Description:
The protein has 285 residues and is of the alpha/beta class. The chain has two domains: 9-98 and 228-282, Rossmann fold (3-Layer(aba) Sandwich); 101-226, 3-Layer(aba) Sandwich (Rossmann fold). It has helices spanning 19-28, 50-65, 77-91, 100-110, 122-127, 129-137, 150-156, 163-173, 210-217, 226-240, 260-271; strands at residues 9-13, 33-38, 71-74, 96-98, 115-120, 142-147, 198-201, 222-225, 251-256, 280-282. The strands form two sheets. It has a six-stranded parallel β-sheet with strand order 4-3-1-2-9-10, with helices on both faces. A four-stranded parallel β-sheet has the order 6-5-7-8. The longest helix has 16 residues, at 50-65. It is globular.
Amino acid sequence: MTRAGSPPIGVFDSGIGGLTVLRALLAQLPHERFAYLGDTARLPYGTKTGETVVRYCLQAADALLDLDVKCLVVACNTASAVALAAIRERVAPLPVIGVVEPGAEAACVASRSGYIAVMATERTVSGGAYRQAILERRPDARVVSLAAQLLVALAEEGLAEGPIAESIARHYLGALFAGGAECGADRGNDRGGSAPDTVVLGCTHFPMLAAAIRAVVGPHVRIVDSAETAAAAVRSELFRSGLASPDGASAVQFIATDGAERFARVGSRFLGRAIRPGEVQLIDL
């Protein structure tokens, strides 16, 4: 359970992928306490209707509000794309940060040419949230979106590195980045370049596969990690609003709606440290 003291930051995802966001938050905000809620009983959100996703997200937000959180992080691309406005209305005036907007902003800053590739799940791609957010910030951008669903399974199965991961990453990216190490060195840096010069990891699972993706796109392409950019946005908001904790040790309360043992086993890889099943509190939403 969370300790007495400064209120925790609430972090919500449909499952365990958002633990990459929590990992980045712990690194960037070492004095904060966190409550992480994974709605593991009802994942994946990407196959649900928009109305259902909004309903699930509002239920999760209410559960975190009961813990007196001071900020809410929507560490799920589908939820960020579909339900962010509804969540903000429900929890106002608490700050709410999703993963799409910070990732799009970082991509626009990172790209020299404006040619940006977005890797995400099918629902995030079909919804066009990253494309819209990028074009709002950089109307001259050229955005190509790739649905890379198999990468989710690789991350959860612990196959995020090595020849299998690189083969699947090449399956999705090879046509865009033919030439591997040469991509982005010069051909992708001007408006007429044949390859994007920036790749957005638009799924919270995909940071686990960053090395495999790097092996395919080459060393010169910028990779924007939506987990890192979301954590940076949270840090900025907390300091801007005077909500940041100045001292104290970090702590995490893990909450799930099903499968404490699997949450702990798979989540340990995503978080980068061991999670014990006994640390995971199960709730109904």
